[in-house]
Specification:
14% strand, alpha/beta, globular, 2 domains, 8-stranded parallel β-barrel, TIM Barrel
């Protein structure tokens, strides 16, 4: 077992915090955030010392109907600039590109013409070669790059190790552990983190963590990953994200001891902006149906639908889920 890195009283300067509120939270409201909300989030992240802010997806307008989504599904350069100008700050900007859902040649312009710093490529274990091609394309355009391997809880250790070796041999800067189904526990995250760090160290790659909160483990799993060297940490305001949501930014900044991180701007942003979203009827966060999909290690789409229908027959839901998935 690798030695623990850092203590509760120390901090690691290599840790970077990524705000994914617009991107993962956008899955809750189809990316219909107001410009005021986005500007306030941008300013709050700067004041809080957050290192990266993810604006959303670079989704293909050929595959997705632009009339059915807000602009952060597509993250056009001009729309980002309307918020940040030339972004003359320490806060770096990020977007996500899904394998098979991004028009690279039209959507990814040269870095010298963009305020975006980091392109994160989201992939499943069976599309790693395509993800590497996408990330290499973005790297050649001048961007920092990451590959985020989704639904890692469904992959075998052998496949994960082979995938990490392939990515390690590429020019990609970062590799992410992604607990898409919120099904994992700290002990499993520890083992994954050690594997990712071993191969990441071999090839000089930074390792990141993106957790979901189906079993109320997102925060615990994130800080467990940090103790084993993972340094790119995703979080969202109030944990806003698809279904059960993510590691809460306020919890993460309350834990990290680096004095550059400040929780007060996050708390102010939450009280002035996030509470309004809940008042408007947006729903995310831990609920019993998400717990059950997490326990069974399956995609939360059925739980999302269950909650939309206000179905509280949890036992029936669980039995149907078991019959279908197990």
């Amino acid at each position: 077992m690798a030695p623990q890195q850092g203590t509760l009283l120390s901090y690691r300067p290599d840790i970077k915090v990524v705000d994914a509120t617009l991107r993962d939270g956008g899955l809750v409201n189809s990316f219909y955030f107001t410009d005021e909300f986005v500007k306030n989030l941008y300013k709050a992240n700067i004041k809080a010392g957050v290192d990266y802010m993810e604006f959303g997806y670079k989704a293909s307008k050929e595959l997705f109907d632009v009339t059915k989504f807000g602009k952060w599904k597509f993250c056009d350069e001009e729309h980002i600039r309307e918020i940040v100008g030339d972004n003359d700050t320490k806060l770096k900007l990020s977007v996500m590109a899904d394998v098979g859902r991004t028009d690279l040649e039209s959507d990814i312009i040269d870095k010298k013409d963009s305020v975006i710093d980091l392109v994160r490529v989201a992939t499943y274990i069976n599309t790693i070669p395509a993800a590497i091609d996408m990330a290499e394309y973005c790297k050649a355009k001048g961007y920092e790059t990451s590959i985020n391997i989704m639904a890692i809880s469904t992959a075998s250790d052998k496949d994960i190790r082979q995938a990490l070796e392939l990515i390690g041999q590429s020019g990609v800067d970062m590799i992410y552990i992604v607990d898409s189904y919120g099904s994992m526990y700290p002990e499993q995250i520890r083992e994954l983190a050690e594997m990712y760090m071993e191969i990441g160290g071999k090839y000089g790659k930074t390792i990141g963590m993106h957790a979901h909160n189906n079993q109320q483990m997102a925060f615990a799993n994130t800080i467990e990953a940090t103790t084993h060297g993972v340094s790119m940490l995703d979080a969202t305001m109030c944990g806003m994200g698809r279904g059960a949501g993510n590691c809460a930014m306020e919890a993460l900044l309350g834990f990290l001891k680096n004095p550059k991180y400040k929780i007060a701007p996050v708390l102010r942003f939450i009280q002035d902006n996030m509470l309004k979203l809940r008042e408007e009827g947006l729903v995310w966060g831990y609920d019993i149906p998400y717990l059950l999909t997490g326990i069974l290690n399956v995609h939360p789409r059925s739980a999302i639908e269950c909650i939309k229908q206000n179905n509280t027959d949890y036992l029936d839901f669980y039995q149907n889920l078991w019959d279908k998935e197990c």
